[in-house]
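job 3f2a | input accepted
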Amino acid sequence: MRLQPDAGSVTTESTAAARLNSRLIAAHRSPPVQASDSLPRVRQRIIFVTSCKGWGGSEELWANAAARLAKEGHAVTVCVWSPPMSSLRLRRLLSASGSVVRLAWPLTLSGSSRIIGRIFRLPRAALGLIRFWLLLCTVRRPDLVVISQGVNFDGVYLAWICRRLGLPYVLVIQKASEWYWNPDWMLRHQRAAYSGALHSYFVSRHNLRLTEEQLGLALPLASVVRNPFLVSWDQRADWPSGEDSWRLACVARLYPLEKGQDMLLRVLAREKWRGRKLTVTFFGVGPFRQSLESMAAFLGVIRVRFHGFIEDTASIWNDHHGLILPSRCEGLPLVVVEAMLSGRLPIVTDVAGNREVIEDGETGFLAGGANENALDDVMERAWQRRAEWKLIGQRAAVSIRSRIPRDPAGVFSDKLLRLIAARSVDRGADRVAERV
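job 3f2a | predicted structure (436 res):
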């Protein structure tokens, strides 16, 4: 016979849940604080884990937040899937914190792990999850686990582990797309991951809305945060020379399925663009560089260059007049924000959060869709107004500074600390009520 909870316990539990929800919502509605303000200086234990296998713009938010919190004296543990992620940007961020930060690589597959995987026929991802579980079981109980997802559902199993161990966690969602839907058998796990989170942080309203639609579930404990940018906040007044030759930068991972470089090459292969003094430089690395270079050669597109990775992203805008980004799906592209901060106009597809920061025809140009004809149309509109590109870039620089915070990582870190504090207050109230 299945035992049912009595009505009193149900009422108490639902009241406690409602009280916690109201505290968590209030914590995120509070205005951001400055470093000198009086958040409780309690040393918190926070674990950051990312679902991404490489380094990209999706990693900037959690990594900068981890570095900031470590610098403030909190106990920070970082979990990533492979050591190469630590070699440049991440290690630099954390070493600059001035604090001792425990760098954990529980998801790295060592030689012994591969042998175990072969013996038990476990996939590499499963081994990584097992090692993450073991880490959580062997460290002192964290006050919060921050799960950063490249796509809105690829941290589901990480969230499942946290729920099984009774650990509080939040989700960070860097991208959601109509291109990516999981099968029905995953739906209940996805719903449980979001329902069990203390909060879910999206980088655009579009991604939040789409995730709710894909789940068929409202997410009241969710909000929008912004990613850190890698250019100066100070407005620059320079403008590239040579206005008889126009240059656009396409800054994105070389991954046409999402970033759409193939569409751009097809448009540039059209007759009208062949005769125009427009050059496109592709910045970025990825698994499809050779095929994209071959495609450009096959189509006879000669006014393109493949530059590869560049460490100093601000230098891109020294000799490029604008950004061209033909993405099929996004969150809110970091490069859009950086181009606008640098006074360069963005020419982009109307996907994800682009419309949330760009006014079409005023601070940039939005394609009507993520297809070749729409891309050709928006490029044509921009080309006909090329004499205004500098002015549009100046308007973009002013506009974007009114839409994003100067220190996104600081704002995000503050939200995490407020969330921990709100939960701590609620747990304290529950303990008092139990004693009474």
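job 3f2a | Residues 1-17, 33-38, 432-436 have pLDDT under 50 and may be disordered.
job 3f2a | closed
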